[in-house]
Structures are given as structure tokens and as C-alpha cells.
Design brief:
Blueprint: E1 4-8, H1 12-25, E2 28-33, E3 49-50, H2 57-71, H3 73-76, E4 93-97, H4 99-114, E5 119-122, H5 124-130, E6 141-145, E7 150-151, H6 154-167, E8 171-174, E9 177-183, E10 186-192, E11 197-199, E12 202-205, H7 211-216, E13 224-235, E14 245-247, E15 253-256, E16 263-267, H8 288-302, E17 310-322, E18 329-332, E19 339-343, H9 349-365, H10 380-384
Parallel strand pairs: 1-2, 1-12, 2-8, 4-14, 12-19
Antiparallel strand pairs: 3-7, 4-6, 5-6, 9-10, 10-11, 13-16, 13-17, 14-15, 15-16, 18-19
The structure holds flavin-adenine dinucleotide.
Flavin-adenine dinucleotide binds at residues 8-14, 32-35, 38, 41-43, 45-49, 176-177, 206-210, 214, 229, 231, 317-320, 343, 345, 347-351.
Length: 394
């Protein structure tokens, strides 16, 4: 008999897990997704960038493994010879620091090198030589990813996992999960709003920013909250050759988007207060005033050529923010024999979905995976009060 697994949530985490379960372990995976249009899912509203510049080696390991997977995604996720194309580019991330932040970059550098990240520290003079369009007047240091960092088409990755999963026998069902039928330490079935019940040998909770209330039904409310992020799409006549994804000391970020070289994405640290309700306020509620009053002036201060930019459009989405330590929660749910989760990735879940999906599928199926083990991300750390705090949250 095939092992059967029901997954709640069909975003990139749920779809990746289903794909690896079906493809690599012969598991019968059923994914319950209440909105197949993914209108509010983080996975369809993501900036979909990948980096190695984390403070935690566990995050670097997951992103390095995922990067290798993304580079060969055409072979990994092809269906009947039709290979997905994600447009992965690797211009790097550039973290900038004033004198106040330089010590942090310096302290993280050996950690990143030891974990296999290809990063270099650059002085203001080196920054100026490499990026002549950058205002370095107030800067003391930069940390640049020399390879293995960039961006890709995240929604296309979600669809590629979904398509491959279905090709390998997984079912995606439109259903709104509301709770679980349990006996002792075992989840027997996922219960849905319309009365349907999905029985399985194991259950994976991957409902993104909506995971907390469902997890409460398992006796442990995961500290995962919706945090709204605005992304602005900018047009500019400026040319910024070699532009990486830049993280300013103020917290704002920008990166090129698309092949023209004249379109950029940008954002700033989110508005308070949070946590928000992932169903409210409407995602269309973009903070245009903050763009005009704060983000644009800050962009132009860092890159004088941005004086002439024009806002093309904007969108907003929710981070599934883990308020405990800003890292994913992945592994077995404490106290349960057959309940697992993958949620709370706090703004770096798109890039880690390949590694997390592969490792979690192996854990659930009792098989093996080449991906890094998920021990560091285990939800058990919530009960042990051992945070795995990630300092580099964008
Ligand atoms: C603006 C923005 C920028 C980002 N930038 C980056 C980036 O540059 N790099 C990066 O790595 N990550 C980034 N992220 C984060 C990344 O997109 C997320 O970590 C990732 O997409 C999370 O995937 P998920 O599957 O856990 O959640 P989701 O994609 O939200 O999927 C969860 C799914 O569960 C479904 N669901 C919820 N409740 C139920 C229920 N009761 N029953 C059935 N289905 C349910 C939802 O409909 C949803 O489709 C960004 C996110 C945002 C919003």
C-alpha cells in the first residue's frame, strides 16, 4: 500500500513537498488548497530573490542547496520533455553599512564563508569603483555576493512544482481546511469547511500566513503572523550596470527587474503595526504616501540617477512572519507521530522551498534526500525556548 499524505496549503512549500513526495518516494500526496488562483498567497506575490547572506549557517545551507536545484530546474521539473524556465539570474546581493553597521557585516562574513557562501567585503572605494552610480559618502562597508545570489520567477517555480507533482500522481483539491480528526498522537484526517474529510497516513501543514489557527487545533499555536509588504515597480531612464539587489542601511531595497535594464523593484521595511490579519486589509491598499515621502527620497539619496524615476505600478503581499525568531518552522509537530509543518519562512521561503520540500518529503516518507536536514528548523525549538534568530531579514 502506498503511503498517503495530505498537505494543507498548495503554495510553494506545499507544492514542493507534494512534488518530492510523489516524485522521489512514490507517496500518494493530496494537496488541499482553498484558492487555486493563489490571489493572496505569498508565493504569487513574492519578489523571488535568492541569497546566501544570512547570519545562520542553516539558512545558508538551505539556500545553497536550493540554488543548485534552481540552476538545473529544467531537468528536475520537466514534464514530458517540457522544461520550466525560471529566468534565474545571479547579479548578487549587496548589503551596505554605515560605520554603525560595519561590525555586523564583518562579524557575519567568516560565518558566511565557512558555510560556503561566495561573498566579499568591499570598502567604500571598492564600492565606488565597482558601482559608480552608487552614493558611498556615508558608507563604511559593503558585502557583495560574488555568485549564487540573484532572482527568478517565483510564481513559475510554484507552477512547475505543482505540474510535476500532478504528473507524478499528486492530487490538488480545492478545499478549505478547518481542523483535524485525531486519536492519541495521530492525525487521522483533515476536516474541511464543506464537511469533506481527507484521511491520510500523515499530514503536512503548509498554509503560509494562515497556519497559526490551524496549528492551534494540534495544541501548539505556531507564532506565524501576516506581515504586509509593499513592492514598487519603477521605471527609470537611469542605467545601473551590474546592479545587484541592494540593501541600504535604512532597510530599503531595490533590484533590476526584467531584461530592459530600466525597470526596478523596490521596497522598504514594513509598516507597523503588525501582526496583520492575512485577510484584511485589502492587499490593494498600497502605501503610496510612504513611497513619495520616504522611499523615493531615500532611493535618490543612494542612487542620484533615481531622481528621475517614475512609479509604474505596485503590489503587496504577506510575509508569513515567525515572530519567535524570523525563521522557517519545518519538521514534525511536537507531540504528534504523523503531523508535520513547513511554514513561517519570514520572507525567505520562496528560495528555500526546493531544499525544504525535498528534506521534509524524505522525513515524512522515511526516505533520504540530498538536501540539508531540517533539525535546526524543528518547531520543537519553540517549546525548548531555543530561538534560531536570523539577523538578516529584509
Ligand atoms: C512581497 C513579498 C516579497 C517576498 N520576497 C521574497 C524573496 O525575495 N525571496 C524569498 O525567498 N521569499 C520571498 N518572500 C517570501 C516567500 O514568498 C514565502 O516565504 C513563500 O512564498 C511562502 O510559501 P508558502 O507556501 O509557505 O505560503 P503561501 O504561498 O502563502 O501558500 C499558502 C497557501 O495555503 C493556502 N491556505 C491557507 N489556509 C488554508 C486552508 N485553511 N485550507 C486550504 N488552503 C489554505 C493559501 O490559500 C495559500 O495558497 C516574499 C514574500 C512577499 C509577500
Amino acid at each position: 500500500m502506498k503511503l498517503s499524505v495530505v498537505i494543507v496549503g498548495g503554495g510553494v512549500m506545499g507544492a514542493a513537498t507534494a512534488c518530492f513526495l510523489a516524485r522521489d518516494h512514490g507517496v500518494q500526496a493530496t494537496v488541499l488548497e482553498r484558492d487555486p488562483s493563489y490571489a493572496r498567497a505569498s508565493s504569487s506575490l513574492s519578489a523571488s530573490s535568492i541569497r546566501q547572506q544570512f547570519s545562520q549557517p542553516a539558512n545558508i545551507a538551505l539556500s545553497l542547496w536550493s540554488l543548485a536545484f534552481l540552476r538545473r530546474v529544467g531537468e528536475e521539473l520537466a514534464v514530458d520533455g517540457d522544461a520550466p524556465s525560471l529566468g534565474l539570474v545571479e547579479p548578487g546581493y549587496l548589503y551596505l553599512a554605515t560605520a554603525a553597521g560595519a561590525a555586523t557585516l564583518q562579524a557575519q562574513h567568516p560565518v558566511q564563508l565557512a558555510a560556503g557562501a561566495d561573498v566579499a567585503l568591499l570598502s567604500p572605494t571598492q564600492l565606488q569603483q565597482r558601482f559608480p552610480w552608487l552614493n558611498t559618502d556615508d558608507l563604511a562597508l559593503g558585502s557583495l555576493g560574488l555568485s549564487g545570489e540573484g532572482w527568478f520567477d517565483g510564481p513559475a517555480l510554484l507552477q512547475a512544482f505543482r505540474r510535476k507533482a500532478i504528473h507524478c500522481g499528486a492530487h490538488f483539491v480545492q478545499a478549505d481546511a478547518v481542523g483535524f480528526a485525531t486519536a492519541g498522537d495521530t492525525v487521522q484526517a483533515v476536516l474541511c469547511r464543506d464537511g469533506r474529510r481527507f484521511e491520510a497516513d500523515a499530514m503536512v501543514l503548509a498554509a503560509g500566513a494562515w497556519s497559526a489557527p490551524l496549528s492551534a487545533g494540534l495544541g501548539l499555536r505556531l507564532p506565524v503572523h501576516a506581515k504586509k509588504r509593499d513592492v514598487f515597480v519603477l521605471d527609470t531612464p537611469a542605467r545601473l550596470p551590474g546592479c545587484p539587489l541592494v540593501i541600504d542601511p535604512s532597510g530599503l531595497w531595490f533590484r533590476p527587474d526584467g531584461p530592459s535594464g530600466q525597470r526596478f523593484l523596490a521596497g522598504a521595511p514594513p509598516r507597523e503595526p503588525w501582526p496583520g490579519d492575512p485577510d484584511e486589509p485589502p492587499l490593494a491598499d498600497i502605501d503610496h504616501a510612504a513611497f513619495e515621502a520616504q522611499l523615493w527620497p531615500a532611493l535618490a539619496a543612494r542612487v542620484p540617477a533615481f531622481e528621475a524615476l517614475r512609479m509604474h505600478s505596485a503590489w503587496a503581499g504577506y510575509y508569513e512572519m515567525n515572530s519567535f525568531d524570523h525563521n522557517g518552522l519545518a519538521g514534525v509537530m511536537p507531540g504528534w507521530r504523523n503531523a508535520y509543518t513547513a511554514c513561517g519562512f519570514s520572507g525567505h521561503g520562496m528560495q528555500q522551498a526546493p531544499a525544504v520540500g525535498s528534506a521534509l518529503a524524505a522525513l515524512v516518507a522515511g526516505g533520504s534526500s540530498g538536501a540539508p536536514a531540517l533539525d535546526a528548523l524543528s518547531p520543537q525549538r519553540l517549546l525548548d525556548k531555543r530561538p534560531l534568530r536570523e539577523a538578516n531579514i529584509i
